[in-house]
Amino acid sequence: MLLIKCPYCEEERPEIEFSYAGEAHIVRPTDPSKMDDTAWAEYLFIRDNTRGVHYERWYHIHGCARFFNAVRDTISDKFIMTYKMGLPRPADVEIAKVKE
Amino acid sequence: MVKYSAGSLFANALHGHKKWPKQWPDAAPKTSYDVIIVGAGGHGLGAAYYLAKKYGITNVAVIEKGWLGGGNTGRNTTIIRSNYLYDESARIYDHAVDLWDGLSQELNYNVMFSKRGVLMLAHSVHDVQSFQRHIHANRLNGVDNQWLSPEEAKAFCPPLDISPGARYPVMGAALQRRAGTARHDTVAWGYARAAAALGVDIIQNCAVTGIKRGTDGAVRGVETERGFIGANKIGVSAAGNSSVLMQMAGLRFPLESYPLQALVSEPVKPVMPCVVMSNSVHAYISQSDKGELVIGAGTDQYISYSQRGALHILEHTLASICEIFPIFKRMRMLRSWGGVVDVTPDRSPILGKTPVPGLYVNCGWGTGGFKATPGAGNLLAYTIARDEPHPINAPYTLERFKGGRLIDEAAAAAVAH
Ligand SMILES: Cc1cc2nc3c(=O)[nH]c(=O)nc-3n(C[C@H](O)[C@H](O)[C@H](O)COP(=O)(O)OP(=O)(O)OC[C@H]3O[C@@H](n4cnc5c(N)ncnc54)[C@H](O)[C@@H]3O)c2cc1C
Ligand SMILES: [Zn+2]
User: Fold this and answer.
1) Facing residue for B255 by CB, picked from A42, A47, A77
2) In this structure, what is the dihedral angle of CA atoms B273, B274, B278, B282, given to the nearest 10 degrees?
3) What are the structural domains, with CATH classification, of chain A?
């Protein structure tokens, strides 16, 4: 079981308190009816599925009940960092710094 | 290749079984091939075998980053069934079951395909209704499936607890008699041996690190840990790592890779006559010919390439198994492991051509592709040889996610495996 630090509760809690909510930073299109099928399929279905550093959403459902974002290495399953919703995607240099 | 028979067994017994020849040679890569298959799981090895056997293309290499059969082929719980809902699914899974029949004879290798029956338990009114709908749909498609009352289910599988007070009451079950299990490793080994005998090179410990394309966009070959290997046709059959391989060719796919775990108990005398699955409580169980109970869990919630999963997933599964089969409460578990399964949004595979000329793909089998092994191998071989899909895999395109013509087994069946 993973230990996950909720950026709102500022505490490391066991994974069973959380649910995974898919890839992060996928912006919902403001006007779907104006999109072509390719762009719509991309939004709905296509995912990075990165082997390595992955940006993803988690939901602290059995805690504060808030969504937040995380950077995690999908080879080791280790969390690199978690951050509050609305903050920009951390840059590679920031991630490298934490990883050291 | 030595033909395995009672005679060869007897002759080798005279030498104390110390003189059996190697089953296949460990090939070193040539500079180029007509076709390269990436991934030596059952699907990739099967594709190589059928390319050589049925479609006359023998200058083929199967390139594997680890050892053959070490991926999901060697990690799965070997349930083989074809009782999926949709017409497209009925055709593709039944095609595979047709090939499982007679596979041992064809490969001269005992894959231990055993049609012991798969029983899917209904625990709620919703289960009963959706299973009965399934049974009718299956029968309209000529796929064997039948409804059993709780008493009939108990007669078919005596360890089952059907008492009304059970935590997960059994309200009936769907039984596919034609379904069952096979021995996972022997499927990979049997295809490897038969393909190698037809001239296929099987190259292990050689990860593919890049896919090279020409100025026309078409594939030219693969970069590997052991150098460049040329080919104008490449079939990728890399299960959990399919996204990674597709990215090497500049393609993004509708796939997510999740951990899926299984475990086995200490071996005991025969007690489970069939396979039992319970989708609503995420547990399935059978007994291997060695005597171990083989138990499978659901996927973990997050994507991962670690080939490991969380303990609470196993606890959840074992708790359900103990409720459904109180007789197993004191069994000890021997080993557990995980694989990486590539899941599509509609839980149906992608098998066919890609937008890159010369690049073919077989992926997205997710939690349930072992049963499809011979069928997927044959269909991938056909698609590569003819440069067009077989009618059975024609609906399984990447483009269906754009056009909206999904084969939505996820919503239809809530199927696990
Ligand atoms: C725990 C578990 C239980 C399961 N239970 C069932 C079940 O009961 N019934 C069922 O039908 N299905 C089941 N499945 C699913 C089934 O195992 C798979 O769908 C099926 O085995 C996939 O076969 P494959 O040959 O495509 O994949 P694999 O056997 O995984 O083969 C893919 C190969 O590609 C190789 N590869 C990856 N990347 C590279 C690279 N860069 N270069 C070279 N090679 C590479 C891998 O090393 C691997 O050997 C289960 C899976 C798991 C994990
Ligand atoms: Zn919280």
Assistant:
1) A47
2) 90
3) 3-99 (3.30.2270.10)
